[in-house]
Amino acid sequence: MKSRKLSRTRRRAAILGAAATSVVAGVALLPNWSAGAAVVDDPKVDAGTKATFQRLADAVFTDRTEALVDGKRDKRGKPLTDGFSGDVKLSSKQNRAEDAALSSLDQRKERLAQLGEKYSKGSTTVTLDATNVKGRKAKVAVTETTTLTYEKVRGDEPKATGFQAHHELTFTADRHGDWQLTGIRDTDEGLAVNQTAKPSVAPMVATTTSTTPSAPKASTSYPGPANAKNFTASGLDYNAMAAYAKQYWSNYNPAYPNFNGHGAGGDCTNFVSQALKAGGWKHVPGYVYDYTRWFGNADIQSDSFVGVNEWSWFAQNSKRTTPLANVYQLDVGDVLQVDFDKDGSKDHTMIVTSRSRGVPYVTYHSTNTYSRSVASIIASYPTAAYYAYRT
Fold first, then answer.
1. What is the pTM of this model?
2. Torsion over CA: 61, 145, 369, 77 (sign)
3. 270 has a pLDDT exceeding 50
């Protein structure tokens, strides 16, 4: 969550239930109206139409994933979305948007290759969560689950990276009752490796004073200068931090509230604080709005436990972290923050869960992601400001 100042109401956030994940199976049926005939009444969305909505969504996000896989550009041929026409298809505007997205992802793949990262294969599945139809508009909520296998370029990369993302697709029916996909909105923070839209960023609202600690920005030049981490000096269990993050990256710990969808930044800092706590960070009780306090459980959390900026202030003021000069110096249990629009207010928090020959890999919430390389983050958001913390 970017800043607790976004909502001063203190309440326990409801734990979100698992999204409905049943995929409509089988071959898509034709909608129950005649193609080409004028339709007076609003079209109905039957099971066959919903199945086609799901298949088109799957095609959209599979195309995006495949654009990142090494060697796929020349082999993949036409996008899967080109196979849809008639009753359910892309609108001409959305078709152009997807072409632009695939071109952007091709460029991202090239930037990653320059940093020594490639994917040998990718897998995307989309489940249909809900369909809401009003007149000639259909809002379709879906969950995308994507895995990308790392090609062994350095030799000891994690096996794969992956994420779960939620999207809302808008379909509009013409007078014949044919549906066109006219819009796609990421309902998470939009931080998945195959997404090209700029992350949603709330206006800067965190209150700073002359005494508020200000973290220095970290360089993103690769490789970073040597700065080995001492894993025994602090008495913390960094492997426990990483293990916690890997365990709860997608299945949220019910012992804590889930802030995904509750303001800018979602659950990211809450999740990182939980991992730090699992590795030995102790509570500092007090007033919830005092950034020099840090605590969190099922019933109450300090701003510094759940807010991106407040966590940074606490971490520096308490001397529990020290700034790193370069993001590639990060190691297991360290924390990375990003200010996407460089307005001075940080937007996102991630924790390092592994490291491979000078490259850290982060795990985070909103969008739920595991083992994504810092190189991939930078390739996706090259103009952002980065802040690296040694814990």
1. 0.86
2. negative
3. yes
Supply 121's token pair. 């294969």
Give 225's contacts (C-beta < 8 A, 6+ positions apart): 325, 326, 329
Task: Please give the mean pLDDT across all residues of the chain.
Answer: 87
Find, among 227, 229, 213, 219, the residue nearest to 319 by Cα.
213
Check if the beta carbon of residue 170 is closer than 8 Å to that of residue 182. Answer: yes
Which residues have CB under 8 Å from 156's CB, separation 6+?
356, 357
Task: Say which residue the tokens 């800067």 belong to.
Answer: 204
| Neighbouring-strand partners of residue 165 | 144
Q: Hey, is 368 helix, strand or coil? A: strand
Instruction: Report residue 162 as tokens.
Output: 């992956």
**3-state secondary structure string, 282-330?**
CCECCCCCCCCCECECCCCECHHHHCHHHHHHHHHHCCCCEEECEHHHC
Instruction: Return the SS3 of 48.
Output: helix
Residues 6+ apart with CB under 8 A from 253: 274
Token reading at 161: 């990276």
Q: Kindly tell me the sign of the dihedral angle through the C-alpha atoms of 148, 153, 155, 156.
A: negative
* pLDDT confidence tier of residue 9, bands split at 50, 70 and 90: very low
Phi-psi region of 182 (alpha: psi -120 to 50; beta: other; left: phi over 0): alpha
State the Cα–Cα distance between residues 210 and 313, nearest whole angstrom: 12
Provide the 10 A C-beta neighbour count for residue 110: 11
